[in-house]
Write a structure and sequence with these properties.
By secondary structure, this protein is mainly alpha-helical. Helix 1 packs antiparallel against helix 5, helix 2 crosses helix 4 and helix 13 runs parallel beside helix 15.
């Protein structure tokens, strides 16, 4: 990826050489518009995060102002490059050179397909590579905004939504490179104490505790985030614990993605929420399961075999789950 980044920066030089040649050859300011168009297209291709991502976003005044600022900056850049070229031509006493104006335009235009073949900004961002700090900052802001917009349909799901529908929507929403950002946005939204979203919490926990998500570490600290989403809801915790125990046994190398044992112990020692009608023996099972998972995580971190925990039975979805206990 670093080699490709260097090649992109080399290919970008062609973009700037075009206006310089145009200035050296004595072309006038009539070349300003076509060069500006090429520079703007290059920005759209190489830095899409700096532009509105949807037709709806393009309709906002803020987006138009941002786009106008980008275009004006390219007008100034092209004007400076042409002026430098004309100045160098005057110093060297080159005079007017008979060159087809398509030549300098073609040199700049070639930078667009070359850079696009070498660089995919979304792929590079997923691997932590950026052309510069400006691109990193723009991508972070754009990705965060996309994540917030993407989770709105999930937050609008009723508590009575069927599991299969919730699972489908959660899978579609989080099947992206920036799944961790969307999960973080959901976790923040569900942290509000007045929100239940029992069906969504259940769907998110089921998604985050799938082996194909945990094994390749698609979401950093995904199991810890799933625990935060489940914490405070006994029914969803009873769904989370046996899956977490099984996943930890299968993938002990992913133990750092699991919640901290102290957080599990705090959840085990927490008093039942007012109105929680979970029977006492199930509350005891839940507490024991949380403590057993904490011990298993500690043992996995220490590299020792944990004692076999007592299984916690996954709850059957009921009317009480649909009502939700945040």
């Amino acid at each position: 990826m670093l080699t490709r980044m260097r090649l992109v920066k080399g290919a970008t030089a062609l973009l700037y050489i075009g206006p310089l040649i145009a200035g050296l050859c004595g072309f006038g300011w009539t070349m300003l518009a076509p060069f500006t168009a090429i520079f703007v297209v290059w920005l759209m291709v190489l830095r899409p995060e700096q532009w509105p991502a949807s037709p709806e976003e393009w309709l906002t005044g803020k987006a138009w102002l941002a786009a106008l600022a980008q275009v004006l900056s390219q007008v100034v850049l092209v004007a400076v490059l042409v002026a430098i070229g004309r100045g160098l031509g005057g110093l060297a006493d080159i005079g007017t050179v008979s060159v087809n104006p398509v030549l300098p335009l073609s040199i700049s235009f070639v930078a667009i397909p070359l850079c696009r073949m070498l660089w995919d900004s979304h792929e590079a961002a997923s691997l932590g590579y950026y052309l510069d700090e400006e691109a990193e900052s723009a991508h972070s802001e754009s990705a965060a905004g996309d994540a917030v917009r993407a989770i709105i349909p999930l937050l609008n799901l009723p508590d009575t939504a069927p599991d299969d529908e919730v699972a489908r929507l959660v899978g579609e929403t989080l099947a992206v490179v920036t799944a961790d950002l969307r999960l973080d946005a959901l976790r923040a939204a569900l942290a509000a104490p007045h929100r239940s979203h029992a069906a969504l919490r259940r769907g998110l926990v089921l998604w985050a505790t799938e082996p194909e998500i945990v094994a390749p570490a698609l979401v950093p600290e995904g199991m810890a985030k799933a625990f935060e989403i489940a914490n405070g809801n006994p029914d969803i915790l009873r769904l989370y614990i046996p899956r977490a125990v099984a996943l930890l046994a299968a993938f002990p190398n992913r133990v750092e993605d699991f919640p901290h044992p102290d957080d599990l112990r705090k959840a085990a020692d927490a008093e039942p929420a007012p109105g929680d009608d979970l029977p006492a023996h199930l509350q005891a099972d839940l507490r024991e399961g949380l403590l057993a998972l904490a011990r298993s995580i500690e043992a996995a971190r220490a590299g020792t075999a944990p004692p076999a925990p007592r299984p916690v039975t996954e709850p059957v979805r009921s009317a009480r789950i649909s009502a939700g206990h945040a």
